[in-house]
Write a structure and sequence with these properties.
two-stranded antiparallel ribbon, mainly alpha, disordered C terminus
């Protein structure tokens, strides 16, 4: 194919450049470009070492991913022109760094305290507390250091009767879907079975804290930041896509790829609910109840425990 030239520049190249300039002028361009570039960087930090090394031993706590997320976010704290990207990059840093806290927490506690660190359930609980605290600290940093026009709305100040009703109904629906879906699609076929009486007092609250952390990260920080420049629909689709991809980094002990579409759809529904009720809490309630039910009811039931 031969392209006509004007002043030595191919027409097709000139047209592409013009389209790119039009896109760059759109209000959503900085947020979209930030999200895509950051996700590609984090994906490389996660997948390249796994590709060329033992996937089980290369980075069990995803520390490399956490360091990469911090390095990507740091320039936005000091370069004024990157201010609009700051809440998005802080949201991604919150996801990665606090997951490392959660994953490595039990081992850190045991290394520091030995047998005084308590049972494994206790270690998981305190690691979940650390994850929630870290998430809230990063959310506070985003709210305090971001200019008002880019500041994410966390939607944590109200719940309302409608939000409570949505939380109850949504919990029932999500548990029902968990019971109906095959175990391999849930991605948790190798979760260690738990005993209700022994494990619930610590693992139940731990699951709730983990759900709270994820909702603040994705439907609070990330969705709230993307809404500043994108349409509500595309902001919701974008945060749900990141939510789904983030689960590639989480070792559920089962097939992870089929689980990504499930988490994308769940993230999409949670984002819609948060916007509909203008509150983060219905999604927190549903997420927490579903995670607790999945671990204490659905997974043991699948294996007859």
């Amino acid at each position: 194919m031969v392209h006509r030239r004007i002043s030595g520049v191919p027409v097709a190249t000139e047209a592409f450049g013009a389209r790119l300039d039009r896109y760059r002028a759109k209000p959503w361009w900085p947020a979209a470009a930030t999200l895509v570039i950051a996700e590609l960087g984090l994906g490389a930090a996660l997948l390249i070492p796994i590709t060329f090394s033992d996937p089980n031993g290369v980075d069990p706590y995803l520390a490399r991913l956490s360091v990469a997320s911090v390095l990507i976010a740091l320039p936005s704290l000091f370069v004024r022109r990157l201010g609009p990207a700051r809440p998005i990059l802080l949201a991604l840093a919150a996801v990665a760094t606090t997951y490392t806290l959660l994953a490595a927490g039990p081992q850190i506690l045991y290394d520091l305290l030995g047998s005084r660190s308590g049972s494994f359930d206790a270690q998981i609980f305190w690691a979940s507390v650390a994850q929630s605290a870290g998430t809230l600290l990063i959310a506070l940093a985003a709210v305090r250091t971001v200019a008002p026009e880019w500041r994410p709305s966390l939607r944590m100040r109200r719940i309302g009767l409608g939000g409570l009703a949505a939380g109850v109904v949504g919990s029932v629906v999500l548990i029902g879907l968990g019971l109906a879906l095959p175990a391999n699609l849930l991605g948790r076929v190798a979760l260690q079975p738990v005993a209700l009486g022994r494990d619930f007092p610590l693992l139940g609250p731990a699951n709730a804290l983990q759900a709270f952390s994820q909702e603040v990260q994705f439907r609070g920080l990330l969705l709230g930041a993307l809404e500043r420049t994108m349409s509500p629909r595309w902001a919701n689709v974008s945060q749900a896509a990141v939510f789904g991809l983030a689960h590639l980094a989480i070792s559920y002990g089962g097939p992870e790829a089929p689980f990504v579409p499930i988490t994308f759809l769940v993230g999409l529904a949670f984002g819609w609910l948060v916007r509909r009720t203008n509150s983060l809490w219905p999604a927190v309630v549903i997420h927490a109840v579903a995670d607790i039910a999945l671990q204490f009811g659905i997974v043991p039931g699948l294996y007859g425990f």
